[in-house]
Amino acid sequence: MNFIQKSREENSPYVQLLILTAYALAGLLICTLLSVIVIISIYGTKVFLEPGALMSTLPEDIIRLKIIQIGSAIGLFLLPPLFLALTERIKIREFYDWKKPLLPMLGIVFLLIIFSTPLIELTGIINQKMTLPDFLKGLEDWMRAKEEEAAKLTIAFLTVRNSGDFILNMFMIAVLPAISEELMFRGGIQRAFSRMFRNPHIAIWLTAFIFSAIHFQFFGFLPRFLLGAMFGYLYFWTKSLWYPMFAHFLNNGYAVCMALYFQKHNIPLDKIEETASFNWYGYVFGLVVTVLLLNYLKNQYSNHGKQLD
Q1: pTM higher than 0.85
Q2: With contact defined as beta carbons under 8 Å apart, do 37 and 101 qualify?
Q3: Range of the domain at 42
Q4: Residue 172 near residue 255, CB atoms below 8 Å
Q5: Last residue of some domain: 65, 95, 125?
Q6: Is 2 a domain residue?
Q7: Which of 68, 107, 253, 305 can bridge 174 by disulfide, Cβ–Cβ 3.0-4.6 Å?
Q8: What is the pLDDT of residue 172?
C-alpha cells in the first residue's frame, strides 16, 4: 500500500496505542463475525444449534475452530497496525522499518532459534513447576485447569490427518502469527513504547510481557516472555521487521513439524515436551551459543549498520 505523506508529525504514542486498541477491538468483532458467516456458508446454521459444537475438539469440528482462530488473528493482530500506518499517512514499510533482509543475517537468526531451543525449554520446565502460596491455591487450580484446556485445544489443532491439515497448520500457527503478531507487538506496540519511554529496553521488555500475557497460558508465560524479548531486540538492532518475523515463523513452524514427526512415529502429542528434553550440558551450551549469536547480531548492526543497510 502507498499512502500520501502529509507534512505533519505523527500522533503521540499514547494516541497511537489508543488507536491500535480501538482497531483491535473493532477488527476482532468484525473478523469474528465474518468467520461465523464463512462457517454458516459451509456448514449451515445448524452448527450453532448443537450444544458445544464450536468448542468441540472432535476432528469434524476442529476446522470450525481453525476458521475462527484465523479470523480473530487477522482482526486482532494483522489489520490494526496496518490501519495505524494508514491513519498516520505513512508507507507501511517506512512506518515499521520493513527493510529488505540480508541472507547471512537470516542464517544467523536461523541458528539463534536452533540454539536457543534448550534455554526456552528449560524456562518452560521451570514455569510448569511454578506453585502459588496456599492462600492462592484456588487461583492456581483455576490456572492449571485453563492450561489443560489450552493444551487439549493445541493438540487438536496440531493433529494432522492429511497434507491439507499440515499446510493449514503451517499457515495458521506459523505464517500468520509471525506476520500479524510481529506487526502488532514489535511494530505497533514496541514502537509506541519506544517513543513513549525513550528507552528501548523498557519498550522491549514491557512489550514482551504483554505479548506473553495476552496468550493467557499461565504456565507457558516465561518462555514466551523471553522469546518476545528476543524478537524485540532483533527488531531494535536490525531496524527491520523481517528478522523477528522470520524468527517467530521458525519457532512456531518447528512445533508444527515436530507434531507431524510425532504422529508419523506414533508418539502421543502430549509427550512432546517429555521427549524433547535436553541434558544439563545441552542447556549450558545452548545458553552460551545464544548469547554469542545475539552479541554478534548486536555488533553487526551497531558497528556496521550503514554497510548492512
Answers
A1: yes
A2: no
A3: 7-95
A4: no
A5: 95
A6: no
A7: 253
A8: 95
